[in-house]
Specification:
By secondary structure, the protein is α/β, with parallel strands linked by helices. 59% of the residues lie in helices and 6% in strands. The protein is elongated and about 110 Å long.
Length: 917
């Protein structure tokens, strides 16, 4: 789906005239109703250039290629004063192609060592500002060449990640080559020695802003020689000799702002530094030694910003009179009509260092800061998001995305922090940033929206503010990082049932499927998020059909077959499982099975070393096995062997994996041929082991699989040999699940209705004798447990009333007390129904009662497959047998009453069928 085109509004006087979304041009004397083709090349140059400024670099390049006129306008110097290369793969070829446009480039942002090597080719000799991210691999040589080629440089920032390979030698080269340098901020330098700092003091006389952040060693004495410095940050820097700091830095004549956040600074040092006449603001966020001294206070008239102070109040103290509400200090300052240059420099610096430190604190997530985040941390980040400095906006948005997360592994967030953001208007602010044309802001805002949307209340607010449409649009971005974060937002929003339809309506399903094709290689993060979102959406019936229509089945199978990243495999398998989970309501189950390589890929994923992948693959095969053709195709693809092996290996695995492994075998065992194959492959023993699980969901699937297997006499005998009778008896007695107890009773009834006896006699006489003896004991144990199970649904008074009158009301009362709701989802074959009908004639009164109880469950009106079962019973001559059982003098009361109810159910369904005809 293409981007939504906004309707244009042409103004005429005070009235609005709404024009169609396609281009129009009005000639003189023509009316608005006349439609003509616009000659875009006749637009004024200024208008076209203004249009270019609203686009990202990729779109500018695309627009420039449309005609010769726009190609010329597209290289206008005013469009190329600033360049952000972070979203793009940037090598020497790329920068060489941009060089002709970058003659007047003044500001450059890049990411990574490859881009650092390549920017030399831009030949932007007049470059004034350079900012780089992900600089771990940038070497001294690269940085020195950059400095040598850009002698007009005024600002150099590398971080916030560590610059591990940069040494003092590169800093000396910067000092010598860039005498106009005003701002130098470097992160993670191992050692900044005195020689390098003295070189800065000697050659860079205009250097007013220094940041040596998260460094290991910095020469404190040498920093005291940089007399020009006004703003100094050593946040996160270790091994500081604070005695030397207090001796030398307090004498710096121009030092206005000092940042010692995240260090081990002690109150004594700050008291000494506070005596500086020029110093106006001290920032000391998350300094443990300072915070432990409850007696510490700032009494020198300096603004101290710390976690234990009111930061907004400290900022407001820098102004003579600006606002009655200190929380609005940033917005009031930005809106000042009369600007103070010195104050603006302080506030711009504070925005930068606050955004940096708050992000670092959020990343480390220290204990005991809940009150800070709720009382002022969230509000600070929201205020910083409105900064005019793009990097501050980005870091503030990243800070919001980070500080709410308390457990990355389980995607857990702090609800109080999330709602604090929402309460202070953070959702609207983030969505406005996400609408920006700047891809860096789009990415970080989408990340914050995604993380916050884990909270259901925030997710609702995002949806109500139009966030779903915004994220769906961002998911179409050509920038992988933007698309990845947008897909993450849709993934979290799609958890809520109320949002699934809105995501589909916004074109989100197609956007997510397109992402998989677009980034099929080299984009594990975006693929995992897209597949995860599709998995959530596929759980909805309507959305699942949309996923199939737009090519989602093929895309997800492609991931399951080809992607080696475990997170992608897990989400792709989960999505396929959900697509196949809607039964007869749509054709997706069959469609997945027909997709080339789908079943083979899922079978292969059950062998993955990653438990989550095995679990979701087994779940997918379980759901797919409900389709007859899929069931046989799974077996043909090696599914029986793979799933038996999985069941063997998961005795100590999570309940989720155990449930799905047993469930997949249950689904396959519906086919008697598969059931026999599972028995021969050794599937009985692991299912018995799983039936002993502590989880009732595992009880149900293991009991269901054993029930199906027990239909075959050979498997029934294997269950006895493997010790399955005590396990099933225990399950039938003690499981918290009625369904598990029911299916365990049915499995035992199958095993001891007489058919297994003939199979047990095959073999040597000695073996037959031993087996016969063991069968007798097992039979007594099983029948006793079956009888006790049936009696749990028998109330003597209710049964006596039903036996006396057989009135509909009495029978209905028995039905309600005996009904197991989940049993209505079970679908039996003609052979199984026939076996229960035959069991009604069994000499054992216990088996008669069990058979009647089972047929009652399968025919209760409203059951999913009740009509199907009624038809099978009619074909098997069940009414006659039921009437005989209901009237038999020697039959137990339970068998009689249940038989009567089943007869009434048959009559009810027959009446309904006749009325429809």
């Amino acid at each position: 789906m293409s981007r939504r085109v906004r309707r244009k509004v042409a103004r005429k006087g005070k009235d609005k005239v709404v024009l169609p979304s396609y281009p129009e041009l009005e000639d003189e004397g023509s009316s608005l109703d006349q439609k003509v083709v616009v000659d875009w090349t006749r637009l004024p140059d200024d208008t076209v250039i203004q249009l270019f400024t609203c686009l990202n670099y990729r779109d500018r390049a695309s627009l420039s290629s449309t005609c010769r006129t726009w190609r010329v306008l597209g290289i206008s110097p005013c469009l190329w004063q600033s360049l952000d290369l972070r979203p793009h793969k940037c090598d020497a070829t790329t920068t060489a192609s941009l060089a002709s446009r970058c003659v007047n480039l003044q500001k450059l942002r890049f990411r990574g060592a490859e881009s650092a090597d390549a920017i030399i080719s831009l030949k932007a000799r007049g470059l004034r500002e350079i900012s780089g991210d992900y600089c771990r691999k940038i070497s001294d040589a690269t940085l020195s060449v950059i400095a040598a080629r850009h002698e007009a440089l005024e600002s150099l920032q590398l971080g916030p990640d560590f610059c591990e390979r940069i040494t003092s030698d590169a800093i000396k080269a910067i000092a010598i080559c860039c005498p106009k340098l005003r701002k130098l901020r470097l992160s993670g330098i191992r050692d900044v020695d005195g020689e390098a700092i003295n070189a800065l003091a000697k050659h860079c006389r205009n250097l007013t802003d220094i940041g040596f952040i998260d460094c290991l060693n910095v020469d404190e004495i040498a920093l005291g020689n940089v007399l020009s410095v006004q703003f100094l940050s050593v946040a996160g820097t270790t091994n500081m000799k604070w005695v030397l700091v207090s001796q030398h830095w307090g004498k710096l004549p121009n030092l206005t702002g000092l940042d010692v956040s995240r260090t081990d600074v002690v109150p004594t040092v700050l008291r000494l530094l506070s005596s500086s006449r020029s110093l106006k603001v001290l920032c000391a966020l998350n300094c443990p030694a300072l915070e432990e001294d409850s007696s510490f206070s700032n009494n020198k008239g300096k603004s101290l910003l710390a976690l234990f102070t009111d930061i907004f109040k400290g900022l407001a103290s820098l102004f003579v009179d600006i606002s009655k509400q200190e929380r609005n200090i940033f917005s009031d300052w930005r809106n000042l009509k009369k600007k103070d240059k010195n104050l603006d420099e302080i506030m711009n610096w504070l925005e930068w260092i606050l955004s940096h430190s708050l992000l670092r604190i959020a990343e480390s997530n220290p204990q005991g800061l809940d009150n800070f985040w709720l009382s002022q941390g969230a509000a600070l980040l929201l205020s910083l998001m409105q900064s005019s400095q793009e990097d501050v906006q980005e870091r503030a948005a990243t800070g919001l995305a980070t500080f709410v997360v308390i457990d990355d592994e389980n995607a857990s967030i702090d609800g109080g922090r999330a709602e604090a953001v929402m309460k202070d208007g953070g959702i609207c602010l983030l969505l406005n940033l996400a609408r920006s044309w700047r891809e860096g802001l789009q990415s970080e805002a989408a990340k914050a929206i995604a993380n916050l949307s884990v909270n259901a209340n925030v997710a609702k607010a995002v949806a109500e503010e139009g966030g779903i449409n915004i994220l769906a649009n961002l998911a179409r971005s050509m920038n992988r990082l933007v698309a990845e974060e947008a897909a993450g937002g849709l993934w979290n929003l799609s958890v809520g049932e109320e949002h699934k339809g809105a995501i589909a309506e916004a074109g989100g399903v197609k956007a997510l499927v397109d992402l998989i094709f677009k980034w099929s290689t080299g984009g594990d993060g975006v693929l995992e998020r897209a597949a995860g979102a599709l998995a959530n959406l596929a759980a909805d019936d309507k959305c699942s059909m949309e996923v199939a229509v737009v090519g989602g089945v093929h895309a997800l199978v492609m991931l399951a077959r080809n992607c080696k990243f475990e997170g992608v495999q897990e989400q792709a398998a989960r999505a396929l499982a959900n697509l196949a989970a809607h039964g007869d309501s749509n054709s997706n189950n069959a469609a997945v099975g027909r997709e080339t390589g789908a079943l083979e890929a899922l079978v292969q994923l059950t062998r993955s070393p990653h438990e989550g992948v095995r679990q979701e693959a087994a779940g997918a095969l379980w759901n797919l096995s409900f389709d007859d053709r899929n069931r046989e195709a799974i077996a043909a693809a090696g599914g029986v062997e793979a799933l038996v092996a999985l069941a063997h290996s998961c005795s100590n695995a999570s309940p989720g994996l155990q449930e799905r492994a047993a469930g997949a075998l249950w689904g396959l065992s519906v086919s008697e041929a598969n059931s026999i194959a599972i028995g021969r492959e050794g599937g009985v023993a692991p299912l018995i082991a799983l039936s002993r699980s502590e989880c009732e969901d595992v009880h149900e699937t293991a009991a269901g699989a054993l029930w199906n297997l027990a239909f075959n006499p050979g498997n029934a005998f294997r269950i006895v040999e493997e010790g399955g009778v005590p396990a099933l008896v225990h399950l039938c007695s003690l499981s918290a699940s009625k369904m598990a107890r029911f299916m365990a009773a049915l499995a035992l009834a199958y095993m001891f209705d007489g058919r297994m006896d003939e199979f047990a006699l095959i073999g040597t006489s000695s073996e037959s004798t031993s087996k016969s003896v063991s069968l007798d004991g097992a039979r007594r144990m099983a029948l006793k447990r079956i009888e006790a199970f049936v009696l749990t649904f028998s109330d003597p008074q209710t049964f006596a009333a039903a036996a006396a009158s057989s009135a509909p009301a009495s029978l209905s009362q028995v039905t309600e007390s005996a009904r197991i709701p989940e049993a209505g989802h079970l679908r039996c074959s003609g052979a199984e129904i026939g076996r229960f009908v035959t069991m009604l004639r069994n000499p054992s009164s216990i088996l008669k009662a069990c058979a009647a109880f089972a047929l009652l469950q399968f025919t209760i009106p409203g059951g999913r497959h009740a009509v199907h079962h009624v038809t099978l019973m009619q074909n098997a001559g069940a009414p006659r047998v039921l009437r005989a059982a209901a009237a038999a003098a020697n039959a137990p009361l339970e068998a009689k009453i249940f038989a009567k109810i089943v007869l009434r159910n048959l009559e009810h369904h027959q009446t309904e069928l006749n009325s429809k005809e």
